[in-house]
Predict the 3D structure of the following.
Amino acid sequence: MKTSDFHYDLPPELIAQAPLPERSASRLLVAPAGEPGFIDASIRDLPGFLRAGDLLVFNDTRVIPARLFGHKATGGRVEILIERLLGESDALAQVGASKTPKPGARIALDAGGEAEVLARDERGFTTLRFHVEGALPDWLQVAGQLPLPPYIERAPDAADAERYQTVFAREPGAVAAPTAGLHFDDALLAALAARGVQTGFVTLHVGAGTFQPVRVDDLDAHRMHSEWIDVGEALVAQVRATRAAGGRVVSVGTTVLRALESAWSEGEVRRFRGDTAIFIHPPATVRSVDALVTNFHLPESTLLMLVSAFAGIERIRAAYAHAVAARYRFFSYGDAMLLWNHACPA
């Protein structure tokens, strides 16, 4: 397939620039399994579309303050977006400058200290060694800036420090939020529990690569970025018990789906801890998940390709056309969808 097969026209004013006052106030576009139409609902209605014994799986990663600014010895401005922490002093990062610093160069950081350029790889990522006060992960909590997505055209404010994290975020390491989880607050989680819906967690540290465009039109030539995941024994046991009892596994976000599909082996989800560079796109079949709660994704993005593989290309095209016409809010701070796996409809 071609990247251009996943284009759609989006009015810029539908890109959400800030969160709603309440997490669970977002709209929910439901695409019922086996039916042609759509249901316009609220995220608060989600429990009514699930049933007792279903398992809702969340990503418990926590976004770190991964954006930094500085200047080269020549005085040129530099923006650093950390992709992944590599220990107490090193990090893999995207470095933005008029001319990319070469290995051996040092970047003076606005927040104090320096970043030394160690290497640059063929994907455009730079390995940096930070000479700062204390361990890098701790220093970032004070010196770093929350890395809002590039389509949010404003600087982060105090509200983003809370709202660009899920209420269950606990494992630091992401540089972008698992945005489908942003809709869930304590009241919605309580309503799901009262319905008899179980909850479980995986960890996938979302990288900045999630925002990188697909630069080739032939999808077979695209090289997917890698992200670190942990699908633990407790979650594996929950999935097996859910399946055995006839329940459904519902992924909250594409990051969870990527994690579970990466952990799929020999007909079931198994323990997996490490990197994944899985690229899910049509005509691939998703085997690990029955339903998906997800936000709306950028045109021609790998995430739009993923949901198209999951729910079917024509179904997604129709859903996005409906969402644009109905003035849904798009992307990270936008509204959500509930989709069913077209390969095994509920």
Summary: The helical segments are 46-49, 136-143, 160-163, 186-195, 233-244, 254-262, 302-311, 313-325. Residues 67-143 form a domain with the Thrombin, subunit H fold (CATH 2.40.10.240). The radius of gyration is 20 Å. The first strand starts at residue 27 and ends at 30.
